[in-house]
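User: Fold both of these, please.

Assistant: Here is the first one.
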Amino acid sequence: MDNTDDTIRRFFALDAAGDLDGLIALFADDATVVDEAQTHRGTDSIRAWRADVASKFTYTTEILAITNGGPGRFLVEGRITGDFPGGVADLKWDFALADGRIRRLMIAP
């Protein structure tokens, strides 16, 4: 496992543990997250987004595949199960990394 793969795995482990500070530390200061057609720029905005999700829903994530999408890019396929509307969702996380930190994350069905 290389450092970039480790960053992705730590992202999901910290999310599962509810470690918001640890999760935010994985992001570059000027990182961008796109989720549910909303863009969150910078760690303050990303922190608010994650805190909002964590306050609304409880869920678990099952990683089905991690694919190297080219230099610094990883595509993750997974399934979340929880107490949100519908209860189950298959999602794709598209990570762009630089220097071991997340620069961009796009989440889509």
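And the second sequence with its predicted structure:
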Amino acid sequence: MDGNGRWAQQRSLPRTAGHRAAETAVIDVIEAARSAGVEWLSLYAFSTENWNRPGAEVEFLMRLVRRVVRKHAPLLLARGIRCRFLGVADPRIPRELAQDFDDLAVLTADNRGMTLTVAFDHGGRRDIVEAARSLIRSGTPADEVTERIFADHLPFPDTPDVDLVIRTSGEQRISNFMLWQVAYAEWVFPEVLWPEFRAPDFLACLHTYRRRDRRFGGVPARTNGDPS
């Protein structure tokens, strides 16, 4: 969800105004995904690298995220959305915010409409390192380690591989996001800044994805006797 700062800058506003404006986009996309039948939606809200931002901005983000979580918990529960939080390992996260994350996860644990994973204090490399440590602690022999077994040691191992990554504002970087799970993901880079991203933009990205030929390293199926 990229472009909050640039959105604010274009309007001669502080960066925090862009983060505040992003709330509407978040809720709109969640509703659009659920209505479109998306079963798994992940939002990259705060990375391990985002701790390098100015302290005042980080503090604002922590307060903003807490307000958003508490405000929209009833809506997420009513919509049948199961909420999970990927990361949340850094001790700098306020205890109250971490507790709100836990409370929302427990509140929505039995929902089956859609799984919403919020990546907060998330880093793909860290997840892979932690999975390797978990494998070592389990005593799994090296020659028995497979991709499936390794994936079972990642956080939330029931999460399927990512099909589509949408990165707004035209930026074209992975930025340490779910590195294991995005191995065969399709990518779409809409130019719109995140605070202006809405349901029609999201649905346009889904349409782009559905038009792509997903071969996973193979070749297209033959049609009408065409051997190409």
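The chain has a mean pLDDT of 95.
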